[in-house]
Design a protein that fits this description.
The chain is mainly β. It has a single domain (2-380), classed as Neuraminidase, CATH 2.120.10. The protein has helices spanning 2-10, 106-109; strands spanning 32-36, 46-51, 57-62, 66-71, 80-84, 97-102, 111-118, 123-132, 137-138, 144-150, 161-163, 169-173, 195-199, 225-227, 235-238, 245-249, 255-260, 272-273, 276-277, 295-298, 305-310, 323-327, 332-338, 343-351, 355-360, 366-370, 375-380. Strands 6, 7, 8, 9 and 10 form a 5-stranded antiparallel sheet that branches. Strands 1-27-26-25 form a 4-stranded antiparallel sheet, with no helix packed on it. Strands 2-3-4-5 form a 4-stranded antiparallel sheet, with no helix packed on it. It is globular, with a radius of gyration of 20 Å. The N and C termini lie far apart (54 Å).
Length: 382
Amino acid sequence: MSWYISAILAGPLQLAGCGGGGSHTVDTPTGVTTVNAFPKVSFVAPVFLAGLPGTTQAAVVEQGGKIHRFDVDAQVMSTVVMLDISNQVLFSGEQGLLGLAFHPDFTNNGFFYVHYSASNPRRSVLSRFTYNSQTGLASAGSEFILLEVSQPFANHNGGALAFGPDDRLYLAFGDGGGSGDPDDNAQDRGNLYGTILRINVDAGSPYDIPPDNPFFGEAGVREEIWAYGLRNPFRFSFDRLTGTLWAGDVGQNALEEIDIIQAGGNYGWRVLEGTQPFDSSQNTPPNATLIAPVFEYDHSLGSAVIGGYVYRGAASPILWGTYIYGDFGSGRIWSLEYNGVRVVSNREIANVVSLTSFGEDNSGELYAVSGNGDIFRFSESD
């Protein structure tokens, strides 16, 4: 049990407001409200929003396989489907078109990347498409597949992808699904389940592995792995000011967790769920130190964490520098203040039914995405 004790002590902090690893929030008024950002348009099962680089537009991902672009304007009346791959996306439950990332040089090369579920056999696909700036569209025929990962179950596929400040592409996979990681994947660095990956899409064929990845050159280990021991890191993001990588890792029976992702970090699943023991018989890599979450909450407050963003916009100064995240099950949205050592406060600020994601536009303004079809922005109430 020495590894377990060291894991708890090695965690980055003692959770604020949590007695003995429990989970509580400090619910104080913030003067923040949510407003339907685009009340004259609606989407079908939206799961993500991102700014379209080089424009005043945004892109919204629909789980069924379409990506819409539209003006970031409260009066916008219509959208344009810039990509439609619905005929090749497996859309069911947690499966579908799940993530989108624009290449850092998108305005010149038109490249963007998506993460989607496919069938026969069931698998996750990382693909690149090419946007035509003249037509404002991307053809399904421009697809270039970089990675395919078989999925033994229909859940825990992960979904998030993003370019870091280092221009490398980061991609999340869940533990392969089922309940309780039945295939012992998350502690096995020989596969890609339960991980966040880091790859170089500007070299290699179909990609290159950066030599500064933490497991580069290590025998028997997938060198793409940046961090592991995760259950289902459905959403992660980079702080656009500091570059810190934040993730929400969806829990099993009891706890939802917020993590700051470190190179080579082992986040404990399924030895731990959050800071609590889950399966002490689970083997870990030799000399493993398990990293505790920055924050956790129990299932009295929700059931599936939706990782968000550190707010760097201008519309709501009261939120600036806090991590905004929420929960799919309860719809609650919180503002978490972290000083680099510990959580200072965690305040409930809003509620959005069927919360599936958060997203930033090009100016850094933050939006909450509802699976019911609407996109909400944050505003300070009078």
